[in-house]
Structures are given as C-alpha cells and as structure tokens.
Amino acid sequence: MEYKLPRTLDPSNTQWSRNALVFWAVLLVLLANAFALRPGLFVDQLVGGLVYGFILVLLALGLSIILGLLGVVNFAHGALFMLGAYLTFQVVVGWGLSFWVALVVVPVLVGVLGIVIERTILYRLYDETPLIGLLATFGLALMLNEATRAIWGASPLSVPKPAVLSSSIDLVVTNVAQFRLFTVVVSILIVASVYVLIERTDFGLSVRAGVLDREMAELVGVNIPIRFVLMFFLGAATAGLGGVLRGTELGMDIGMGDQFIILAFVVVVVGGIGSLFGSVVSGLLIGEAVFLTPLVLETLAIRTTIDAVAIPGIGGLMPYLVMIAVLLVRPRGLFGQEGFLE
C-alpha cells in the first residue's frame, strides 16, 4: 500500500505555501511604496477600485445565480444592467421623480422584465446545453440594445445626483465623493441580503435542491417553476440596481452593457461557477487590480527610475490577466464547486 505524506508535510504543499507567502509579501511592499509616494492618489484609486468592484459584483451576482443555479448562460444580463441605467434617466429626468424613487422602482421594473424573459424564452432552455442559452440570450441582448437606442437615442445621457450625496468627504490625504461611498454601502447590503437568502433560508435550500434533483424536489411539494422565476427576478433586479448606481455616477451609453457583461463573466469564472461568495471576492479583486495596478507600476517606475515598468493600458488588461493566473492554479476558479455544467 502506497504511503502518502500528511498534507502539512507534503513537500509540494510546503513549496506552494512559501510561494504564496513571497507573493503576498511582495504585493504588500509594492502597495506600501505606492501609498508612500502618492498617498492621495492611492486612496482615490483604492476607493475607485472598491466602487468598480462592487458594480461588477452586483452584475456578476445575478449572472452567477442564473448560471450556477439555473444553468443558463444569460448574455442578455448586460442589457438588463444597461436598462437599469436608462430607466433611471427616464424616472429622474423624463418623469421628474427623485433618485430615491428610481433606486427602488428601477430594479423592480428590470426584475419584472427578467421574469418576462424567463417565462417566454429561457424556461424552455433549462434542459438544453449552455451554448443554446448563450446564443438565444445574445440575440435578445442585441434586440434590447436596439430598442434602447430607438427610445432614448444613441448619445450618452446623465442624471443629476441627489443633493445629499453631491458633496465629498475629507479623508485627510484626499476627498472622496459621497456617492461613491453610498454605492459601496448599498452594494454591501444587497450582497449580504442575497447571500442570506440563498445560503441561510429554506427558500434558498429548496432552490438548490431543485437544481440538483428537480423531480425529487417537486415530489416533496416544492414548486420549482415559481422558485426559478423568483430567482431570475432577483438576478435581473441586482443587475438593474447596478445600472442605477453606475448610470447615476458616470452616465450611460448603449455600449455599457456589452462592456460589463464580458467583465461579469470573467468575475464569475475567476470566483468559480456556482459560488456567490466567489463572485464577491472575485469582483472586488478585479476591481482593485484594474485601479491599483497602474499606480503601483507607475510608482515602482519612479522608485527604480525604469520607465518601462509603467506599462501603458495595463489596467484594462488586468481582469483577463487575473483570470489566466487563477485558472492556471485553480481551473475551477477560487471557490468553484465540482460538477457544475459538467
């Protein structure tokens, strides 16, 4: 019988731990250097990465719910995110209502649209291969983009921020817009609520049971179709909320959904398909990588006087570099569960 070393004594595991320790030590040194040379800009980028990361989390959370629990690759999810932004413009500018009304009403409207999509198209695809769902929702995304262009035009639009969130907060080394901090707080509340619903309630347990064995769940009295509809509403509503927050902060354009849906897929893959917690960690990791990496390399170039270290455009490449690095080490993602989509 072959004898295997205990995990703690496995030489390969020990070497991996040392490599990880070296990596984190180097990363901390680089971040400390960036903060020492550009403290104000470092905090700006840190907060910017946090806000950007949480927008990705809100979008990826719904995508992860629909993909991990329902098994449908919903490429139209980015269009729902975009519609959240444009409906905010309609509520605030078109109808003259407040941002606070849009914050509540728009996610509900997008969630209802999600139900319509699920009941008319996607429920027919639950037993099909993911590729069929991807093609169907890709066509749906194109239709929603063109409908948005027809209603609101192709020019970028913007909405005024609420007066109470229009000022900045002094953080000693820099000032941070209150709306950015508001985005972080709202995102944390939504993420925590969704996690509790899925992982800590009988409703979430019944949904996961339906995904694993639908016939058995229905046999014991669980109404799986209704639960799937509610889950799709939840996923679409979180995407709509992300659109409300992003559109209010930076404005909206037709291409924002296409841009963010690719990044949302990257977040889900890096975090691990089927893992809500993984999507949260991955979204924040990628958000900070996008914003902090250019600053870290720029300050490293200043410190070493090697200009080539500051690579132009590196921030935009970071989501994909992070994905490659993670998948080389953990092919299922950071917190991926065995068996999904296999």
Main sheet specs: 2 strands, antiparallel
> What is the domain total for the residues?
1
Instruction: Provide the CATH top-level class.
Output: Mainly Alpha
Quantity of strands, as a count: 2
Q: What value does the Rg take, in angstroms?
A: 22 Å
Strand order of the largest sheet: 1-2
Mean pLDDT comes to 87
Q: What's the helix count?
A: 12
Q: Helix coverage percent of residues?
A: over 70%
Question: How would the global form be characterised?
Answer: globular
Q: Provide the β-strand percentage band.
A: under 5%
Tell me the series of helices and strands, N- to C-terminal: HHHHHEEHHHHHHH
CATH architecture title? Orthogonal Bundle
The computed structural class is: mainly alpha
Terminal Cα span: 32 Å
Unreliable spans are 1-10
- What's the CATH topology name? ABC transporter involved in vitamin B12 uptake, BtuC
Q: Would you kindly provide a written description of the structure presented here, covering whatever features stand out?
A:
By secondary structure, this protein is mainly α. It has a single domain, classed as ABC transporter involved in vitamin B12 uptake, BtuC. Helix content is 73%, strand content 2%. It has 12 helices and 2 strands; from the N terminus they run αααααββααααααα. The protein has a two-stranded antiparallel sheet with strand order 1-2. β1 and β2 form a beta hairpin. α2 runs antiparallel to α9, α3 packs across α10 and α4 packs across α9. The relative contact order is 0.17.
